[in-house]
Amino acid sequence: MRDKRILLIIGGGIAAYKSCELIRLLRKGGASVTCVLTEGGAQFVTPMTLAALSENQVHTSLWDLKNEVEMGHIQLSRQADLVVVCPATADLLARMAAGIADDLATTLLLATDKPVLVAPAMNVRMWQHPATVRNVARLRQDGLAVIEPDEGEMACGEYGPGRLPEPDVILQAISRYWSAQADAPNGNLQGKHILVTAGPTHEPIDPVRVLANRSSGKQGFAIAGALAALGARVTLVAGPVALPTPPGVDRIDVETALEMQARIGSALPADAAVMVAAVADWRAEPAPAKIKKSAGRPPAIRLVENPDLLAELALSPTRPRLLIGFAAETEDVLANARGKLARKGCDWIVANDVSGNVMGGEANQVHLVTATGVESWDLLSKTEVARRLADRIAAQLGDEHAEQSH
Ligand code: CTP
Q: What is the whole-number distance in angstroms between the Cα of residue 204 and the centre of ligand 1?
C-alpha cells in the first residue's frame, strides 16, 4: 500500500473502533489516510482520535464552508487513490445504493470516480434482511467491492454473520483489491460464470426418512459469496441447508444427488466449477410408503451408488476450464487428496481434515493440492478460506485469459 492515498469513511456502528487500528496498519504499510466521519460515526470515535492516528485533518460536515473553499468535496474524493467505507452500516449501504447524498460521506461516495471498497458491519438480522441483501447486490452491480462480514458473536449478544472482520483482514482485502484494480483483468471475475455446489444431499429411505451427512454448507456458501464479490456470475446448487443466499448469487435448491446432477447439467457451461457439496455416495431405493416398525424386524436398506458428479463433470464435453474438488478426509489427508485429484480428473483439490469439528464449525485448515504441489494454509475462518480461494481462481482465470490473448 506504499504511497497510496486512502479516503476512509467511518460509519456509525460499534465496529467503528476497529477503524482506528486499520488507520495504524495502513500507515504502517506506507499509505496516507484521510478520514471522513459520519454523524453516527462520531458517536463511537472522536475526530481527535482519528486526526491523531492519521496525522491528517478529519472531515465531518458538508456544510463546513472553510472546507468548501479550501477543499471541496469533489476534490477530496479525487485526491484519493481508493475509497474505503469501514464500517458501513445498513443505513449507509441503503443510502449508497439509492444514490442519496445527504451528508459529506454519501456526497463524496456519489462524487467519486475512484474504486470503492465497502466493509459492512451490523446486527445479523439487519445483514440478512432482504433490503440489505438487495442493497449489497445493487452496490456490487454498480462495481463496488463489498467485503463479506465475519460470522461470530456480536456486540448485541446475537450470533451470526455481520461482524466486521479484524483490521489485519481488512488491510489484506484492501491490498488485494488494490492489486486487482491495478492488474485487471487478473484479479477480476467480471464476465465469468462459476458453478458452486454446497451442502449435503438427502437421500430418501421412505417419504419421511433420509440418509444425510453433517455438511453445513458454510464453506461452499462462503465461496459462492466471495466469487460474487469479485464480480463473477455465480450459480450455487445447494443441498438442504438453512443458510441465507449470499448477495449476488443465483441459488438453486436440491435434495438429492440425482437432482444436483440434473441442475448442474442445466447450469453449464461455466468457466470454473467449485464442487464443495458433500454428495452422498449412496442412495436408497425409497419405499413408497412410510416403513412401519410393526413389520417386526429392522428393515434392510439396499443402497445403490450415486454418480460421482465431479468425476462426471471432468469427462463431460462442457468441462469448465478450471475444475476444483474438495476432499473431506479423516486420515492420510494429503495422500488421499492426491489420489482424488488424479482419480476425479480435476485441476485442484482443496483438502481438509474433518476428524475435528470442521463440519458445521467456523474455521477450516485446508491444503490446496494441484498437479504441481501442495500449499498448506493456516487455520482460517471459512470466510477467509473462501476469499483466498476466490482470489486464486481469479488469478488463474486471468492468467489463462492473458495467455489466450497473446
Ligand atoms: N463428489 C461428487 N459426487 C459424489 C461424491 C463426491 O461430486 N458422488 C465430489 C465432492 O463434491 C468433492 C469431491 O468429489 O468435491 C470429493 O468428495 P469426497 O466425499 O471427499 O470423496 P469421495 O469420492 O466420496 O471419496 P471417499 O468417500 O471414498 O473419500
A: 19
